Amino acid sequence: MKICIVGQGYIGLPTAALFTRSDCEVVGVDVNEEIINNLNKGKIHIEEPGIAEIIKNAIDNNRYHASLTPEKADAFIITVPTPYIAENYSCDLSYVIEACNEILPFIEKGNTVIVESTIAPMSTDDVIKPIFEKAGYTIGKDLYLAHCPERVLPGKIIEELIHNDRIIGGITPECSKKASEVYGQFVEGELMLTEAKTAELSKCMENTYRDVNIALANELAKICAEIGVNALDVIKMANKHPRVNLHSPGPGVGGHCLAIDPYFIYAKAPETAKIIKLARDTNNSMPQFVYENVCKIIPEGKISIFGVSYKGNTGDDRESPAYEIIALLENKGYEIAIYEPHIERDNFVDFNEAIKGSNLILILADHNEFKEMDYESIKDKMKTPIIFDTKNILEEVPKGIELYNYGNLYKLN
Ligand code: SAJ
Question: H-type helices in 260-350, by residue range?
């Protein structure tokens, strides 16, 4: 089977890698020339374990190459970003539409087209299907169209792509069947056949479920700071109940999924999607909450930011709440030094420079490096050894260091 995958990012590239392992030939398409050139040399631009070796091996065996333009194939998979439109939070399908138009000249009767990008409910029926119908195809008869959302966790993509159950949402049952034959190449989880619109909403709801739960945890953290209770203890205790799973409060919700997908549902039914919108607002309010607490801990001085990526052990900083927190602190006049071991950027500094003469370490990402750090040694290097851990990663710190987290913020009131 030859597969053409449009979009060689966090999902498209690992997906390409897995198809090549199942003896498929893959052409990975992307608009970014630098990415294409690097990929063809075996250089990977995403930080995800396992991918580089597979792609290198596939290039050596002529099973993978990257290209700026699509090629004829048996199946086309679209894995491009779907941001949201700021005015009304609706799903911006422009990259998906562009990708559909781009593959059109290479499509032949009998091919399968799969959109993996997360899209708002009804997008496949109302927007994507007409593109191919206008070109003369009858969907389900001579072209098969499906929405098959990915549901993998960054950092564990390879494992989850293989083992997670997969939603296969065809426009017709025949479309679902054809799309399941494509994923059957490497997916070992269950292939669940359904309609496109059900697949779309299921995917958006998965991330909304998590966003709403995180909002609940964040609200709890705020309540606890207000009334004088240790939020982390409450979570630990409550989660001993067999049917309770309170999530973790944090500096806000980042990433390209949780911070965006709930809006796709909200935009479809703004009058009804009340909890969904409130959860987004609550999570969006967390940078301000972190900022206000920092101001209470130290009114001025140097702050060492530990981590800006949206989640631990990745170099992905899309939609990261860290940047809003940094902007608020800079505006207030604090001196900011950013230490982020997973991202290289000109204005980021190394560990020693970050903590030298610092008044506060503000942990904003749960990287392993920060969990395993020798905090004893930082005491002498900092001006005032204080840590505010917004990710709940430090249970204990050496004597002489003052630690704030969501368990004891009430002490500041
Ligand atoms: N977060 C909290 N508290 C928590 C859990 C997470 O504040 O208890 C924050 C994280 O710090 C991060 C954000 O939420 O900023 C999102 O992180 P995440 O690990 O929950 O999820 P993502 O965005 O990396 O991946 C999600 C996953 N969806 C679900 O778990 C329902 C993943 O399976 C999806 O494939 C992915 O979205 C996607 O692509 O849609």
Answer: 261-268, 274-284, 286-297, 321-332
